[in-house]
Amino acid sequence: MSEIQVGVEQAEREIGLIREYHTRLVSDVVTGKVDVRHLAPERVEEEIDGLGVLDADDAEDELGEDVRDELAEDDE
Question: Same structural domain for residues 24 and 12?
C-alpha cells in the first residue's frame, strides 16, 4: 500500500471519530448533560437571567427599520 493510501485511510478514520464525537457532543448538550450557558454572549445571558427570552414583538423592536421593512416585504 502506498504512503498516500495509508494517509487517506488514516484521515478517513480520524474524520469518522470526529463525526462520532460531534454527534455525541450535540446529543449531550441537547439533553442537558453538558452545560454550555457560560458560552453565551453577555446580551443573551442578560436576557435569559433578567428579563426572560425575547418574544417576537421585542425582537422586532430590536431590529433596525430597514430590516423591519425587508421582513414586511417578505410577508406580502
Answer: yes
Residue 73, CB-side half-sphere exposure with 13 Å CA sphere: 6
Structural domain range at position 28: 1-34
Residues 76 and 41 placed together within one structural domain of the fold: yes
* pLDDT tens figures, 24-36: 999 999 998 988 8
What's the predicted TM-score (pTM) here? Answer: 0.48
Q: What does the H/E/C string look like for the chain? A: CCHHHHHHHHHHHHHHHHHHHHHHHHHHHHCCCCCCHHHCCHHHHHHHHHHCCCCHHHHHHHCCHHHHHHHHHHHC
* Spatial distance between the Cα atoms of 55 and 28, rounded to a whole number of angstroms: 27
